[in-house]
Amino acid sequence: MTLVTHIATIAIVVETKSVELMPFSLLLFGFINAIVWMAYSLIYEINIYLFICSAIGAFLTASEIVIYALYRHKVKTCKVKSA
After folding, report:
1. Which residue ranges traverse the bilayer (predicted)?
2. Which pTM value belongs to this model?
C-alpha cells in the first residue's frame, strides 16, 4: 500500500509542478529508514524479503527526493482533486 502512495505522490507533483505535498524532512527520514532496514536485513538476520521491500522503498523515496529537487523552486498552490 505504501508503494502506491509513493507513486501517487510522484504523479501529483509532476502534474501540478508543486512540492507542496512532499515535506522534505519526511522524504529524508523515510530514505534513511529504508537504508537502515536494508542494512539490518543483511547484517543481523539475512532476510531477502525484508531486503527487497526496503530496497524498493529506498528507490522510490530516492526518486521522490530527485523530483523534489527538480520542482522545489516552482512553488504554486496545489488543489488536489477529490475522488
Report:
1. 21-40, 46-71
2. 0.74
Would you kindly state where each structural domain of the chain is located, as residue ranges?
2-71
The model's pLDDT over 1-32, given as tens digits with 9 standing for 90+, comes to 566 777 788 888 888 888 887 888 888 999 99
pLDDT digits (tens, 9 = 90+) for 23-57: 888 889 999 999 999 999 999 878 899 999 999 98
**Separation CA 30–CA 46 (nearest Å):** 22
CATH number (1.20.1280, 1.20.120, 3.40.50, 1.10.3470) of 2-71 reads 1.20.1280
CA torsion angle for 25, 30, 36, 42 (degrees, to 10)?
Answer: -160
